[in-house]
Amino acid sequence: MSTREPCRIVVTGIGLCTPFGPDRESSWREIVAGHSRTRWLNAPHWTGDSFMAGAPVWLPDHNHRRHREPLVDLALTTAAESLDHAGLDSATLAEMDVGIVFGTSKGGLHTFSRLFENQRAVGSHPSLSGRDTDGTADWLDVFPNQPAVAISRLIGGSGPVLCPIAACATGLAACLRGAELIQSGGCDIVLAGSSDASLQPALLGSFRRLGVVSRESEDPATACRPFDRRRSGFVVGEGAACLVLERLDSALQRGAKIEAEWLGGRMLTDPFGLTQLDPEGQSLKRLLSDLRTLDSATPDYINLHGTGTLANDSVECQAIRTVFGSATDDFTCSSLKGGMGHLLGAAGSVELAATVLAIRDQVAPPTVNLTEIDADCTLNHVAGIARPQQIDRAWKLSLGFGGHLAGACLGRFDR
To answer: Which domains are seen in the chain, by residue range?
Structure first.
């Protein structure tokens, strides 16, 4: 039996839609500028009896929008932008083996909420029964795989279509699975990413009951403070990212611009609890050690999960310091959640895309609202202001409820 030689995988396209902007470059400019887009939510996002901060996505104004479910629109928008960025048209795609790995941490909550309210209306007014008020034509948008299916239809694909669900590690898990499809020889190109549109009262109320959202009551722009001594939780945001992962030989053959090289990644499980990390960080330390085995070079920059919750931030930082030891201060770290909120299922893909752009532009984006570093979170943080620096190696970490741990290694492309 012959053993397949590992192929080199590169990133040739990125599509982004975030609270900062409706596309890649507008979002990236605001991330680097260190701005915050978290604000007080109004109905229909929040109907509680107290203020709650959030970061609604900035969707482009499409005249041809085909879906009322933003989860699907976000997927289609970012997929189209990533293909354009990669220089891929329908004729080129038709000659390649193309896969779709696009995840969500849950289904279409906006559609579910609308269908539920419509059903209540029918129950209160039986005369409406049989009309289109129940919205049954849209019920498929509640399914979490609908964004991936919509992208496949957009490109007319006949390759694999997968929808990973791994809580807040979903986006990075999707990219890991996409790279595996290319490594196995099943695909030349994979569109990988995730979307999330979860600013719905039921979900926001659930997170509040869990005690993981910020208790900030004065300024919503400073509600999320990753690694800061005064942090009290995260703020929910919305967004999406789609990355084009491609075999290096394919990218070179068609003259594509290469944004970064995919060096590998890992997923592990932390079995400590449904919503808690092991306070000793044993699984996270193993993940970091595995990544060091994959890429022996010390990273220049690590994009952290950094939710702004007390336990997550301290465990993440202490695990990094334990694994890297004296080399910890040789690289920079930051979290993007202070400015755009926690994008839940989309966090991993959006933050991975930003890590690729950090390599492209040789600048480490800042952690917004980090003004007083907690004693349990002492790393070489990029606080408040972006830091131009050499970035030849960069890592991305994602940690999800349910024990999902994911990490990926990226490199500046070198022929």
So the answer is: 9-108+143-411 (3.40.47.10)
